[in-house]
Amino acid sequence: MACSENSDTALSSTVMPQYTDVAVWPLAQYHNKLNPAMNESMPILTFKGQTYSCEPGETVLGCLLRHQQAIPHGCLAGVCQSCCLQSHRVPTERLVEAQQGLSEAQCRNGEFLACQLPADHSLEVSLPAQKPWHTATLARSEQLSDTVWRLEFDSSLRWQPGQYFSLSLNGIDTRCYSAALPASQGPLVFHIQRHPEGRLSDALCRLSAGDTLQLQGPFGDFRLLEDSTPRRLLLIGSGTGLAPLLAIAGAATEDDQYDNIVLLRCARGKTGLYESPELSRLINKGIHIETALWDDNDSLESTLRALAPLRGDHVYLSGSARFVQQFERRCFMHGASRSDIHKEMFLDFSQTTA
């Protein structure tokens, strides 16, 4: 699952320098030594052979970051999945809420989202085996609107249309962005929603050609289905949530089974719409493009009514949680089967405060 629209926040970890030439007595250990009773009742996390005391109300991620452990993380809301940890000594039922969005294989492997698991029991955790990080060089940066940038990278990586990557400039702070082109049609392209107070998106939009960053992935199961022939392919996205749909639509134009493709691009207001080379390419290929303001019920309803009935369509939704939930309900009401509605929800940080 990708995050943001695309996701970003001003919250970020700062990893303190490790002083190896002096004796350091962690404050938590000092308090525990003074108060043995507190030490007995306080949950303890074991990570890389070291133990760390937990404070009431904090998560596993919060505890480890407070103790200056370099745990990759991003949205802090369980969406980007960059803070995934692993434990084999915790009851499965305790992990359920912290495993939302993870694959069955990850769940069987004892993996969980550290930002979603309360640190209210003692447990031993570790970093799961991860996909390697790759260095990518920025080939081109282009401003598409007041708030959206297009970044094009030279990379030999391969991905399925609809998948996303984790991006990082320092190896700790990460954000997830979906590729806007299928790998078969060109370079690795991201559409970045710039948040001026954001730690990472602002820095990404300031990169120049020749600059490098770290990529991990691809990830995600939000992909074009290849084992069925829908009556119509209906792609509905909001803001930069349009990016994975542009890749999916591009791939669908190469497949003879998709002869009726409709792309509905949405925004809260007209200023939220932007043009891109990827969109222009689809228009030139004859893809039917519609536009709707999704906070305008009249505009939204009239657009969907014109497309109805949706029975037999494969519907792909991509955007903020509120946007996806609203359109899923409306598409269902206009005839789409729930099993034919595929969703990618981003965390919209424009609605949060840092």
Quick synopsis:
This protein is α/β, with parallel strands linked by helices.
Helix and strand layout, with pairings?
Blueprint: H1 27-34, H2 36-41, E1 44-47, E2 50-53, H3 60-66, E3 84-86, H4 92-95, H5 104-108, E4 111-113, E5 123-125, E6 133-143, E7 148-154, E8 164-168, E9 174-178, E10 188-193, H6 201-205, E11 212-219, E12 233-238, H7 243-252, E13 261-267, H8 277-284, E14 288-293, H9 297-307, E15 314-320, H10 321-333, E16 341-346
Parallel strand pairs: 1-5, 12-13, 12-15, 13-14, 15-16
Antiparallel strand pairs: 1-2, 3-4, 6-7, 6-11, 7-10, 8-9, 8-11
Helix pairs in contact: 7-8
What does this structure look like?
The protein is of the alpha/beta class and 354 residues long. It has 3 domains: 27-67 and 88-125, Ubiquitin-like (UB roll); 133-219, Beta Barrel (Elongation Factor Tu (Ef-tu), domain 3); 233-351, Nucleotide-binding domain of ferredoxin-NADP reductase (FNR) module (Rossmann fold). Helix content is 22%, strand content 26%. It contains 10 helices and 16 strands. The chain has helices at residues 27-34, 36-41, 60-66, 92-95, 104-108, 201-205, 243-252, 277-284, 297-307, 321-333; strands spanning 44-47, 50-53, 84-86, 111-113, 123-125, 133-143, 148-154, 164-168, 174-178, 188-193, 212-219, 233-238, 261-267, 288-293, 314-320, 341-346. Strand 15, helix 10 and strand 16 (341-346) form a beta-alpha-beta unit. Helix 7 runs parallel beside helix 8 (277-284). It is globular and about 65 Å long. The two termini are 22 Å apart. Residues 3-39 and 349-354 have low confidence and may be disordered.
